[in-house]
């Protein structure tokens, strides 16, 4: 497909992508848009121009503050909207051309794309889980006995998920020094976690189960996900019930939701699962994605340093298995629910997805381009995560999730 728009070959937002998001201009009303090159397509205006004729869509669904109602139209409709836009962007006579529907991206403010009712965080990278197990448990038996039998996860805090550009304050909490009693104060081991998250696109009733075979029908799309972590708070509090204050203070996501249809050409096989999984977790076909990921740390007043280059294809547990396991007990899910992958680490040290691993719990400081070193994050550091797929001349990307770590309040 070719378009009449001038789009850089390096743009994440090619005609093959067309991700959905929520934007506003000059403090105006929030509404649904689609990213294409350096522009945002205002879907309400596009509707008024006749782009979606014969589709019988109420244009007010494009004037919502979140994508939830739009997603509820169902994949047959939302994917048809993408196809219609691709056709119009390829047609020189389209009413979109030179219209008010095309808003320069540098004129818009992006907002949280979905209203997140519930959020779950998984722990699905075998490389990450192995690294953590070697550091804190047993180098010879790093994985816990259940890890290869089920997608481990925990229910997180939906209220503190924020969009890219919202800065984060260093959290406070209890920590336990090597010697002496617990103390209260700001975390001294602030970390990022490089993750992806999928957004549920189809609700279920209490008692229903989603199989691996139809799980992808329930997944609308994906975003980049930075699961900020206070490692010292987490270490002291997580036994016996798991993460709490060390995680719940903030998670950051990219603003554009890339659909599963746009990611279809980039499917790849996942790692071999040994021992074999139980029947309800068995899958057919390729369900991992060749998605290049990177993390940059930018000290205040200095240039950024790429500290990690990883890939989503490494994940041991795929999204279909995560959703099937999440609902096998009858737990219902709702449109807009968000489920994060867990830290995405590769096999080489430069592909680890957290400072905990990159510095090996602080033993091996990471050197930045300005000459400074990091065991964990400093106040004023900006963390930027990027991700894109590229194959056969097609590029589909997520843009970025970017946020600065501010001092504790």
Characteristic terms for this protein:
409 residues, alpha+beta, SH3 type barrels, Fumarylacetoacetate hydrolase, domain 2, five-stranded antiparallel β-sheet, 9 helices, 26 strands, 28% strand
The CATH superfamily of the largest domain is: Fumarylacetoacetase-like, C-terminal domain
CATH architecture of the largest domain: Alpha-Beta Complex
Rg, nearest Å: 21 Å
Structural class: alpha+beta
Classify the fold: give the CATH topology of the largest domain.
Answer: Fumarylacetoacetate hydrolase, domain 2
Overall number of structural domains: 2
Strand portion, in percent?
Answer: 25-35%
Number of helices: 9
What characterizes the major β-sheet? 8 strands, mixed
CATH class of the largest domain: Alpha Beta
Could you tell me the number of beta strands? 26
Percentage of helical residues? 10-25%
Arithmetic mean pLDDT: 97
Describe it.
- The protein is α+β, with helices and mostly antiparallel strands and 409 residues long.
- It folds into two domains: 20-111, Fumarylacetoacetase, N-terminal domain (SH3 type barrels), CATH 2.30.30; 119-406, Fumarylacetoacetate hydrolase, domain 2.
- It contains nine helices and 26 strands.
- It has helices at residues 43-48, 68-71, 75-89, 126-136, 231-237, 245-248, 260-263, 319-327, 355-358, and strands at 20-25, 31-36, 39-42, 102-104, 108-111, 119-122, 153-155, 161-163, 168-169, 172-175, 183-186, 190-191, 194-200, 219-226, 229-230, 251-253, 258-259, 267-268, 288-289, 292-298, 305-311, 338-340, 366-367, 373-374, 382-391, 394-406.
- The strands form seven sheets. Strands 6, 7, 8, 13, 14, 16, 17 and 22 form an eight-stranded mixed sheet that branches. Strands 4-3-2-1-5 form a five-stranded antiparallel sheet.
- The termini are far apart.
- 45% of the residues are buried.
């Amino acid at each position: 497909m070719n378009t009449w728009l001038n789009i850089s070959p390096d743009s994440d937002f090619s005609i093959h992508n067309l991700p959905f998001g929520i934007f506003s201009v000059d403090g105006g009303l929030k509404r649904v848009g689609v990213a294409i090159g350096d522009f945002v397509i205002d879907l309400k205006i596009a509707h008024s121009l006749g782009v979606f004729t014969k589709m019988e869509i109420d244009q007010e669904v494009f004037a919502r503050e979140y994508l939830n109602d739009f997603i509820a139209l169902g994949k047959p409709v939302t994917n048809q909207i993408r196809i219609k836009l691709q056709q119009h962007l390829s047609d020189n006579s389209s009413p979109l051309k030179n219209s008010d529907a095309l808003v320069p991206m540098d004129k818009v403010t992006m907002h949280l794309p979905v209203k997140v009712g519930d959020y779950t965080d998984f722990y699905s990278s075998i490389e990450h889980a192995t690294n953590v197990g070697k550091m804190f448990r047993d180098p010879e038996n790093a994985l816990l006995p259940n890890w290869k039998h089920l997608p481990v996860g925990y229910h997180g805090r939906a209220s503190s998920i924020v969009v890219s550009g919202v800065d984060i304050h260093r959290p406070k909490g209890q920590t336990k020094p090597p010697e002496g009693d617990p103390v209260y104060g700001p975390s001294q081991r602030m970390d990022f976690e490089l993750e992806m998250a999928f957004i549920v696109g189809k609700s279920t009733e209490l008692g229903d189960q989603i199989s691996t075979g139809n799980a992808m029908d329930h997944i609308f799309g994906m975003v980049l996900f930075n699961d900020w972590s206070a490692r010292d708070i987490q270490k002291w509090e997580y036994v016996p019930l798991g993460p709490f204050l060390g995680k719940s203070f903030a998670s950051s996501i990219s603003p554009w939701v890339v659909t599963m249809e746009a990611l279809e050409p980039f499917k790849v096989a996942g790692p071999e699962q040994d021992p074999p999984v139980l029947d309800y977790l068995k899958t057919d076909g390729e369900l991992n994605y060749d998605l290049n990921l990177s993390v940059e740390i930018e000290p205040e007043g200095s240039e950024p340093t790429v500290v990690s280059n990883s890939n989503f294809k490494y994940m041991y547990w795929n999204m279909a298995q995560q959703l099937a396991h999440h609902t096998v007990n009858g737990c219902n899910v709702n449109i807009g629910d968000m489920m994060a992958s867990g830290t995405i680490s590769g096999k080489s040290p430069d592909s680890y997805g957290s400072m905990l691993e990159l510095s090996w719990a602080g033993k091996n400081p990471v050197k930045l381009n300005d000459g400074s070193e990091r065991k964990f994050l400093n106040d004023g550091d900006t963390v930027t995560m990027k991700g894109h797929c590229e194959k056969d001349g097609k590029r589909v990307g997520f843009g970025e999730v970017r946020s600065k770590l501010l001092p504790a309040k």
